[in-house]
Amino acid sequence: MSEPLLTLLLLPGDEAARAAATDSFGAQGDGPWELLRVPGPAGDPAAALTAAARGSTGRYVGVLGAGDRLEPGALASVVAFLEQLGREPAVLYTDESGPAGIFSKPRWVPAYLEATNYLGRLLLVRRDVLADVGGWRPGAATEWDLALRVTERTDDVVHVPVPGLIRADADDDAVLAAGRRAVEERYARLDVPATVELTGSADGDSPGYLRVWREVPSPPLVSIVVPTIGGRRTVDGQERVLVTHLLRALVERTSYTHWELVLVTSEGTDPDVVAECREIVGDRLTLAPVAGTFNFSRSVNTGAAAARGDLLLLLNDDVDVLEPRWLDRMVAVAQDPDVGAVGAKLLFEDGRIQHVGVSFDRDGEATHPHIFEAEDAGYFGSKVVDRDHDAVTGACLLTPRALFAEVGGFTEALPLNYNDVDYCLKVRATGRRIVCTPFARLRHFESSSRTARIEDEERAALLWWRHRTMADPYTNVRGLA
Q1: Which residues of the chain are modeled with pLDDT < 50?
Q2: Which of 41, 125, 200, 321 is geometrically suited to a Cys-Cys bond with 130, CB 3.0 to 4.6 A?
Q3: 456 CB contacts (<8 Å, ≥6 apart)?
Q4: Would you state the torsion angle of the CA atoms of residues 451, 456, 460, 461, taken in this order, to the nearest 10 degrees?
């Protein structure tokens, strides 16, 4: 047999469980793969895994748990994928299923790996890369820790969109606690001061995930750009002026204090409303009037031109603060120099989800995953963990002011819709990432000032981005996640 392409290392464990895993490997048939049984008792196999990997001959090495069952044809599918790809990336991973259900994974999402070990199994690391990081290290989160260390060295991480295996086990509290230490060690290696916390019932999240808070030793000035015409709406049973309702929430329920308000007033805005706004925020206020028919993009650009902060927060006047640390959270995420825009979780007035990021369907149309759904953990944490997206809504969008200028701000030929999507795609074209952080929670009384309708010409304008929107990198290509 020629040198194998894939080496699977079978973890120690109950002999009957190991036999089941071995049988599933045998059912793969003949091919460029081998299975090596890792000796030793079950528990902490890191040293044995590393030694076994050194003795292997496969160009990729992965782990198979005792009791795991490879899906029929899984290894042949990986080999065929590599042949079609025409190169050998540093890391490959497949979809999987197990006690928590079928996990149809997205493509490589850096923020997601810091919240949970979503790469999971079947994870295959090129043997030279594995050797470069020194193999596995002891601990309950051995495989998660390896994934973190490998992806610090390379972002050449490729998703093979096939079912790889059925896992016999599921990560437990011990794995989560060890994973927390592994993520803390990751930030120590990167020399980035950060705190890693467990999500839990105290903040409304489901347990089982991690959240990284980068330290912000010198809080930057955030210029909150709010376009308004001073509209009214019934909120919580009372008629309110939306913009003054928002500003009171900013002053009274926002813990981040280093901000200014750039109020972009359209023609016809009631002077009394403007006066009340000044009364609420005082000398934080900068007025930026804009003339002509309402054009959200022009209003945003006008506000950005008047802003002084290093960060711009584009904020609709029809939102309300739910979590006092919402802006702290967005600023913390924005400390990553690779991140070009940060979005928030927005809820409808009745508590259902309106926004946790923007995705693109099979036709390249922008969609809101989880819209109208309840605020639970979602699909493997999709509603509660930081996730990369191609776009987030401009109703609440944080971005560096210098980057905003670099990409030309909002496109004024898109006066109402898709201007935020277009902006985010311009940011993505610079190589920066777009992250939605669901810990930043606000209510959004969507489309309070206009009819919620997408015009044909607005859809047509996004054809420019069709090369990207037809292949959303952050969703499963089989349309399952």
Answers
A1: 1, 201-205, 448-451, 478-481
A2: 125
A3: none
A4: -30
Residues 180 and 194: beta-carbon distance below 8 Å: no
| Residue 273 phi, psi (nearest 5) | -65, -45
Do 350 and 369 meet the contact criterion of CB atoms below 8 Å apart? no
What is the 3 state secondary structure string of the chain? CCCCCEEEEECCCCHHHHHHHHHHHHCCCCCCEEEEECCCCCCCCHHHHHHHHHCCCCCEEEEECCCCEECCCHHHHHHHHHHHHCCCCCEEEEEEEECCEEECCCCCCHHHHCCCCCCCCCEEEEHHHHHHCCCCCCCCCHHHHHHHHHHHHCCCEEEEEEEEEECCCCCCHHHHHHHHHHHHHHHHHCCCCEEEEECCHHHCCCCCCEEEEECCCCCCCEEEEEEECCCEEEECCEEEEHHHHHHHHHHHHCCCCCEEEEEEECCCCCHHHHHHHHHHHHHHEEECCCCCCCCHHHHHHHHHHHCCCCEEEEECCCEEECCCCHHHHHHHHHCCCCEEEEEEEEECCCCCEEECCEEECCCCCEECCCCCCCCCCCHHHCCCCCEEECECCCCEEEEEHHHHHHCCCCCCCCCCCCHHHHHHHHHHHCCCEEEEEEEEEEEECCCCCCCCCCCHHHHHHHHHHHHHHCCCCCCCCCCCC
How far, in Å, CA of 316 to CA of 306, rounded?
17
Within 13 Å of residue 454, how many CA atoms lie on the same side as its CB?
12
Long-range contacts of 24-30 (CB under 8 A, 24+ apart): 24/68, 24/69, 24/70, 24/165, 25/64, 25/70, 27/70, 27/72, 28/70, 28/72, 28/73, 28/74, 28/75, 28/76, 29/76
Q: For the chain, how far is it from start to end, CA to CA, in angstroms?
A: 38
State which amino acid sits at residue 218.
S
Residue type, 48: A
Take residue 229 and report the two structure tokens written for it. 């015409």
What torsion, rounded to 10 degrees, do the Cα atoms 109, 110, 111, 117 define? 80
Please identify which residue in the block is written with the tokens 């016999």.
168
* Structure-block tokens of residue 259: 């901000």
**Residue 165 φ then ψ, to 5°:** -160, 170
Mutual orientation of helices 242-253 and 271-281 as an angle, nearest 10°?
0
Q: What is the pTM of this model?
A: 0.90
Q: Hunting for tokens 């809101």 — which residue is that?
A: 368
Domains and CATH numbers, the chain: 6-185 (3.90.550.10), 222-469 (3.90.550.60)
Q: What are the beta bridge partners of residue 389?
A: 434
